[in-house]
Amino acid sequence: MDILGVDIMVNKVLSIMQLVIAPFELFMGIPVLGWMTNISLLFIPSILLGFAHIAMMVILIVNKMKWYPSLLGLLAAILSIVPFIGMFLHLGSAGTYIYEGVVGLTKK
Q1: Which of 22, 65, 77, 101 is the most exposed place for a label (fewest CB within 10 A)?
Q2: Per-residue pLDDT tens digits for 18-53
Q3: Which pLDDT value is given to residue 4?
Q4: Structure confidence by residue, pLDDT tens digits, 89-105
Q5: pTM attached to this predicted model
Q6: Among candidates 108, 90, 73, which has minimal Cα distance to 34?
Q7: Which of 79, 72, 37, 41 lies closest to 54 in space, CA to CA?
């Protein structure tokens, strides 16, 4: 139910949240830099991103929006210990977050 444009505003805010998470995913997808950051900080960046993806997935499911970027990001956070698989998953997650965020902001 769209009362005073609240649903539209919530969708815009969620799209902005997706665009905020995307640069972190892009950084973690940089071949050597992301992996070395993850290793040197004892996988804390991946753990924090994993929690962010879980929270974002729950919010997107409740608001009936596409949640597959969050699932891909969660898989990337879990599999980030494997260098190239984690890299491709992080880059794919960043791409889907950017796509869904831009589409959500341009939708009326």
Answers
A1: 65
A2: 999 999 999 999 988 998 999 999 999 999 999 999
A3: 60
A4: 999 999 999 999 999 99
A5: 0.87
A6: 90
A7: 72
CA–CA separation, 105 and 22 (whole Å): 15
Q: Where are the domains of the chain?
A: 6-106
Q: Which two tokens stand for residue 102?
A: 């831009």
Neighbours of 19 (CB within 10 A): 16
How far apart are alpha carbons 26 and 90 in whole angstroms? 7
Phi-psi region of 4 (alpha: psi -120 to 50; beta: other; left: phi over 0): left
Instruction: Give 30-84 as a DSSP string.
Output: SHHHHHHHHHHTTTHHHHHHHHHHHHHHHHHHHTT---HHHHHHHHHHHGGGSHH
Nearest CA to 57 among 42, 38, 72, 79? 72
Encoding tokens for residue 54?
A: 């879980």
